[in-house]
Write a structure and sequence with these properties.
Strands 1-2-3-4 form a four-stranded mixed β-sheet, with helices on one face. The chain has helices spanning 15-32, 73-95, 100-110, 114-119; strands at residues 5-9, 38-44, 51-56, 61-66. It has one domain (2-111): Ribosome hibernation promotion factor-like (Double Stranded RNA Binding Domain), CATH 3.30.160. It is 47% helix and 20% strand. It is of the alpha+beta class. The longest helix is centred in the last third of the chain and has 23 residues, at 73-95.
């Protein structure tokens, strides 16, 4: 995962806090098992008291903000990243055109082919 994940933390002077932020981001990405290369940038927001997170991959560009003091970032990062990326990934899965392999996997999971069933309700 380390070669596929680049993390930039700006605006935090405490090296141990930067290390904690980087560690929690890495752990969050490992827990989510997201494919591809990712870049995460954490920086102070132009809005006072907020932190901006920019998350980039090949086909995802997402920015979120957290209003917390810097020392709480390692605590809140996993939940916010999980919520945001989980929502994005599930939304993308629902909008991706049906591919034969996905249909086959859904058929194995559900026990029927949803395309055939919708075309012929008597099957």
């Amino acid at each position: 995962m380390s070669n596929r994940l680049a993390i930039v933390v700006e605006g935090i002077d405490d090296p141990s806090l930067v290390t904690d932020v980087e560690r929690t981001i890495r752990e969050s990405f490992q827990d989510m098992s997201l494919p591809g290369s990712w870049r995460v940038i954490v920086r102070p927001s132009p809005v006072s008291g907020r932190w901006d997170f920019s998350v980039h991959s090949l086909d995802v560009r997402h920015t979120l903000s957290i209003a917390v003091p810097p020392n709480l970032l390692p605590t809140l990062i996993p939940r916010r990243l999980g919520e945001s990326l989980g929502h994005l990934c599930s939304a993308r899965l629902n909008t991706v055109p049906e591919r034969p392999i996905l249909r086959d996997l859904r058929m194995e999971r559900d026990g029927h082919d949803s395309i055939e069933q919708s075309a012929n309700p008597h099957v």
